[in-house]
Amino acid sequence: MRLFRLLKIQYVAFQFGLDEFVLSHSRLRVLRIVVRTLTFWRKLDKPRGVRLRLALEALGPIFVKFGQMLSTRRDLLPHDIADELAKLQDQVPPFSFELVLSTLEREYGRKINKVFLKFDEIPTASASVAQVHLAVLHDGTEVAVKILRPNLESIITHDIELMDTGAWLAEALWSDGKRLKLQQVVSEFARHLDDELDLMREAANCSQLRRNFLNSSMLLVPEVYWDYCRNSVMVMERVKGIPISHVDELTTQGIDIPQLARVGVEIFFTQVFRDGYFHADMHPGNIFVGQDGRYIAVDFGIMGTLSDQDKNYLAQNFLAFFRRDYGRVAQAHIEAGWAPKETRVDDFEAAIRAVCEPIFDKPLKDISFGRVLFQLFQASRQFNVEIQPQLVLLQKTLLNIEGLGRDLDPNLDLWKTAKPFLEHWMAEQIGLRGLASRIQKEAPNWAIIFPEFPRLIHQAFAENRNHSLEKKLSDLVAEEKRHNRLLMLIAILLAGLLAWQVFHL
After folding, report:
1. Does the annotation count 281 as an active-site position?
2. Where in this chain does the record put each ABC1 atypical kinase-like domain (predicted)?
3. Can you list the alpha helix ranges (DSSP code H) found in 270-408?
4. Which of 48, 105, 319, 410 could form a disulfide with 365 if both were Cys (CB 3.0 to 4.6 A apart)?
5. Over the stretch 150-181, which tens digit does the pLDDT of each residue have?
């Protein structure tokens, strides 16, 4: 099955002329002429960006998601390709209304008019995994109905199998494969894809994020209507806003664009460090801006989580980077066990400084995180730093944030925006304020345990006494056995001596 899927991928790439991206290198000019001569029958009249988008759509949801991620990196892509890939964010060809009806009636077990007062047959958005229709409940509530694309499981399963095979080969044949933990990365990606195929999980994600930002002046998360949610259907509050990529329209509405960009950075760091729970699919198609200037988030299929240990490690590294304390960055890597214990801190520090020092004191438009991450990867390879799979989603989200920030305000100073937030967060984690916060957090548990202290202490002493008594009894028994053996030996010797005397008489 994997072979057939691989052949299809190669066929689609060839059909849409994607070999052009490989053969465009000057060293392959002769090969390009040969390929064009042998494939004169192909109709490649459409621009390369359009052909790439169509190929990704033909290959399915995983490849569409790859295109979505690429579309946010306009600093790394030619404009014609970035513009076409941006259409993958919410303009994927929809599936038919007949399939929508069959899905809804199967999930609800009744006709659609018994569930919704009104239902718009034309989807308002269509993405790689699902599409969204506007509707009205019988009580007059306006809602958005998200319906899963049919027959996705088999396609995604085959693609994941191919990715897993590729990761296995890379780990077996490439010296850096095991260090990068490629198979673990694929497993992490597959786990989040499984979550996206269950809209009840997405509804739960949405509900959690809404609770984290309830009454927030920065971010609005729609309410979930649980009575209408199923595994293939999610019904939530209809929210109205302007796509964040429509900067001209936002400006016309009087939105302060530079402030909007700064708030976006603050939302990201709030999710990561305050909650350890963040929206991990923040491409422009999933972010809107309301009339009140608040961000509006949609599509909660992929959410990232971080442990307290991960948050503390990241905060220390971010602050150390912002303060240009590269020695602390190197030391934190070693303390976390990500770099070998025998790593020389001064050498690692020098390598990190060479990568990061040139990017400071520059506006966002002059900084490419993609290039910085690549250079850090090169440095980490030299020191055998292990890639942490649980942070892959965070790295992806950080790249999304960069793409959004660059579109909104190219002069945004990411460092100055993030540093005060991180310093405040760290102040709450360490020192007297952090101690007070942890005491307050653990107080309910202490209130339960404290009254039981006398009983627990008595039990511990009793166990200790019992243990001591058992040991004494054991020692006495052992001593008695030794005495018995000694008495037996004496008796045998006496018996032998008596027998010897009788014999000689």
Report:
1. yes
2. 87-332
3. 308-322, 326-335, 345-356, 369-382, 392-408
4. 410
5. 877 777 777 777 767 767 776 776 665 565 56
